[in-house]
Amino acid sequence: MSNGSNTEAAGLANLASAGMSEGERLDHERKLKDIARTMADVVATRVSNVHATGSSVLPGRWSRPDQERGTGWQPERPLDRPPGIDLIDAMCIADDKRQREKETK
């Protein structure tokens, strides 16, 4: 981890630690440093994978040479009313009727 990351983590810890007890503040700082260390490890691993494989995608995960590429085409589905819309329509009609009866009284 670079010195800049330590400074940033300390700055974030100071901003967020207002009103915390000493133990809470130390725990908060430890968590921020763990997060910064984890993120640095993720970036370093990602960069090393790009340099090792020449690609940012891990080999074999997304493409398989033994499989034919698809076209992305899917069979069409007919347009239809969403399920449950009949129930909602009936509820709205009943409520409209109820409100009109209430207004006439």
Describe the structure.
The chain is mainly alpha-helical and 105 residues long. The chain contains three helices and no strands. Helix 1 runs antiparallel to helix 2. The longest helix has 32 residues. The chain is flat and about 70 Å long.
Terminal CA distance: 76 Å
Largest sheet features: none
Low-pLDDT sequence parts: none
Structural class: mainly alpha
**Whole-angstrom Rg:** 30 Å
Q: Please, what is the average pLDDT?
A: 77
Helix content: 55-70%
Please work out how many helical segments DSSP would assign: 3
- Based on Cα principal axes, name the global outline: flat
Q: Which sequence of SSEs, written as H and E, runs from N to C? A: HHH
Fraction of residues in β-strands = under 5%
**E-strand count:** 0
Brief sketch in words of this structure:
The chain is mostly helical. It has helices at about 5-15, 20-55, 85-105. The relative contact order is 0.06.
List keywords for this structure.
mainly alpha; 105 residues; 3 helices; single chain
List the helices and strands and how they pair.
Blueprint: H1 3-16, H2 22-53, H3 85-104
